[in-house]
Amino acid sequence: ITQGIEVIYHASYTDTEALDMLEAKKLEHFVAPGLAWLINTCHHASEWGLTPEVTKKMGYHRELEAALESMRAMRRRGIRILPGGDYGFAWTPHGTNAKDLEYFVKHVGMSTMEALLSATAWGGPMMRMGKELGYIREGCLADILLVDGDPLKDITVLQDKARILAVMKDGEFHRAPPVRGGFGTPAAPATRSTRWAA
C-alpha cells in the first residue's frame, strides 16, 4: 500500500494496521484474493493427491480461514474485492472463474449484486479504463453477457455454460444468440461477425 501497488493478490493475512491503510485509500487499491484456488485446494483436490489431510498439514486450511476473515473485514470497510486469480490448475480449470462469485456470496457475505459488481463494474477502474468498461451505455466498449436466468437470485447460474446465451466483447459477438424469426419461423443462427454498438 505504501509503495502504491494498485492490485494486491491473495492478501490472506491482514492485521488492523493493513486494513486501516487499505480503507484510507480504498479508491486507489483492489484486492484479488484467489479464493477459489484456496477453497478448492483445501476441499476439492483429493483426486490430484491434495487431500484435506495433506492440505491441512501444508497450512492451507489455516490460510483459508485467515483469508475469509480478511475478506469479510475488507468487505465491511468497503475495500474493493475482485474475482479471479490462480485459475489453470486441474482443480481450478480455466473457464470456471464464476465460482469466485459464488464463494464471495457464500463465504465473504457479499450480496449477489456486490459479487456481480466485483466482476463487472470494478474491472474498468482496475484497468484504468473506468470510462470505457463496466457500464452498458453509449461510448462504452459493449462487453456484455446474455444469461438465461437471474444471477441476482442465483449467482451460480453464471457457472452453467449452457445458460450463457451470448458473449459480446467490444461490441462484437464471440458467442452469438440465435436470431428469432417471426411467429412460426425458425430462428436463424447469428454469425460470429454480428456486430452491435451502444
Structure characterization notes:
The protein is of the alpha+beta class and 198 residues long. It has two domains: 7-134, Metal-dependent hydrolases (TIM Barrel), CATH 3.20.20.140; 136-198, Urease, subunit C, domain 1. Helix content is 32%, strand content 10%. It has helices at residues 16-24, 35-43, 52-57, 60-76, 99-108, 112-119, 123-126; strands at residues 7-9, 30-32, 144-147, 164-169, 172-175. Strands 3-4-5 form a three-stranded antiparallel sheet, with no helix packed on it. The chain has a two-stranded parallel sheet with strand order 1-2. α2 packs antiparallel against α4 (60-76) and α5 (99-108) packs across α6 (112-119). It is globular, with a radius of gyration of 19 Å. The two termini are 37 Å apart. Mean pLDDT is 88; it is low at 192-198.
